[in-house]
# Entry
Amino acid sequence: MIDDDRMLIDGLTAWLDGVPEVRLTACAATVAELLRTEPAPADVVLLDLLLADGSDPVQNVRTLARLHRRVLVVSVVTSGDMAVQMIDAGACGYLTKDHDLAALLAKVREVAEEGVALSPELALGWLAARDGERPVLSPQERAVLLAYASGMTLAAAARSAGVQPGTAKNYLERVKDKYRKAGRPAYTKLELATRVREDGLATGAPRTPLHRGP
# Structure
């Protein structure tokens, strides 16, 4: 957990004593501190959006995502736009701090199982932000897509994403299926590269508007 709220950390630590399948393995006030002191990479990283060191939330998420960490952002900020920014940066979920610990545990499980976890009240805003055109990709799917669409072979993309070639192939098939269901088929590497550019996936920038009709 990366947070500087000692009350929250102490409360969560005490509460998790009664949850045998989940353990809080390390706590830190900054991303750098966690990466320097944690005994081993955890299955899920809980990350506060606004840390006392003034670090940029997007960069914090990107730093962890580049290390293939599954990040659940937990914040007092209830903005749907902020949730979209965090997911685009590579977070696996976003939960507002007005939820109870049971809700937090449920989202931790979703993220650990490679899902995308959002507070229920943010879900509609998330869907609206996608305009029904941009599919929601998991961090692993996005990592393989970016590597493959950049020109890498499937094997090289798998190495870049830290997964086996067979797993990378499965991720790509899921990405293609999601784009097909969104009405934006992408069957070839060139078409996938076009979708990456349209959606600003490589930089986190807003996607290029799609032109419909003549």
Remarks:
- The radius of gyration is 18 Å.
- The CA atoms of residues 8 and 97 lie 10 Å apart.
- The chain is about 50% helix and 5% strand.
